């Protein structure tokens, strides 16, 4: 693959994902809950692309995130990151170590991402040793320092402290630093600001924006908030009842929504237009 074609190839390809929970009972046949129904999406290969996936509870957006992270197995379909199959139903995929080198998660509740019984810096060290290249595994200090610096923290800030020493916003930034240590191609952030103090939410959102532009890492940003999705994303998918009902660049979706559901989301935020985003 030439440099030009590599740059234009999708960083993320999702093809025909299906997922149903439940189904036939032991004695009686019954329909399962269709969480994803033939979902296909892609995110371009330019540096620092952000795909926002927007939907209410039950839309399938979190199931989609969990399948990308291989926390849930799809019934059918495939997910590729940088051309490598990482998840899917019945598809040969990369091993767990390679998966975590390609894709890193940032979860909704940062207090559940770390144990009460270990200093948080221990997680950064383990990530560097287990997922870093040979040089990083031998000497992880510089990689950890760079990752912390990227989110506005330093090693001395952590200094043997456990999670009780940090606010939710600080812990989420540490989670982001931990994700960066593996130098992933893609970060999946599932409702990453919903458990953060309201005054700090835009700080985290702007940090994602800076990291995507400066480090070139791609993001999948899962949210129910159309406003931050439009502000942050290069591509946006609107999900409802396990299906993608709108997909495209935010300007196009705002200017000409294809689905009545998208229009209803927009109407719920009267000031949501291009001027608000600018």
How is this structure best described in words?
By secondary structure, this protein is an alpha/beta fold. The protein has a single domain (3-277), classed as Rossmann fold, CATH 3.40.50. Helix content is 38%, strand content 23%. The chain has 13 helices and 10 strands. It has helices spanning 3-8, 61-68, 96-102, 120-131, 134-138, 141-150, 155-158, 168-181, 201-215, 226-232, 250-255, 260-267, 274-277; strands at 12-21, 33-43, 50-54, 76-81, 84-88, 103-106, 186-190, 218-223, 235-240, 243-248. The strands form 2 sheets. Strands 6-7-8-3-9-10 form a 6-stranded mixed sheet, with helices on both faces. Strand 9 and strand 10 (243-248) form a beta hairpin. The protein is globular and about 50 Å long. The chain starts with a helix and ends with a helix. The relative contact order is 0.16.
The proportion of strand residues reads 15-25%
Give helix and strand order, one letter per element, not per position.
HEEEHEEHEHHHHHEHEHEEHHH
SS class: alpha/beta
Number of helix segments? 13
């Amino acid at each position: 693959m030439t440099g030009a074609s590599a740059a234009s190839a999708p960083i993320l390809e999702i093809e025909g994902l299906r997922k149903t929970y439940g189904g036939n009972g032991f004695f009686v046949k019954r329909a399962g809950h269709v969480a994803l129904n033939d979902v296909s999406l892609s995110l371009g290969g330019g540096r620092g692309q952000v795909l926002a996936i927007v939907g209410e509870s039950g839309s399938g957006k979190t199931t989609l995130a969990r399948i990308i992270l291989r926390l849930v197995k799809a019934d059918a379909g495939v997910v590729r990151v940088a051309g490598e199959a990482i998840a899917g139903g019945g598809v040969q995929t990369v091993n767990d170590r390679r998966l975590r080198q390609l894709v890193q998660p940032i979860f909704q509740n940062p207090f559940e991402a770390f144990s009460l019984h270990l200093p948080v810096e221990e997680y950064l060290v383990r990530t560097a040793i287990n997922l870093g290249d040979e040089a990083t595994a031998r000497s992880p200090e510089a990689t950890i320092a760079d990752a912390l610096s990227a989110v506005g923290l330093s090693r001395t800030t952590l200094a043997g402290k456990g999670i009780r020493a940090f606010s939710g916003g600080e812990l989420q930034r540490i989670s982001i630093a931990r994700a960066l240590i593996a130098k992933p191609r893609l970060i999946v952030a599932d409702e990453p600001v919903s458990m953060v103090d309201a005054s700090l939410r835009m700080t985290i959102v702007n940090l994602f924006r800076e990291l995507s532009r400066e480090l070139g890492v791609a993001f999948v940003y899962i949210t129910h908030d159309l406003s931050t999705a439009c502000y942050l994303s290069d591509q946006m998918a609107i999900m409802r009842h396990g299906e993608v009902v709108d997909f495209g660049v935010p300007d196009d979706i705002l200017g000409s929504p294809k689905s009545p559901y998208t229009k209803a989301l927009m109407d719920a935020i009267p000031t949501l237009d291009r001027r608000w985003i600018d």
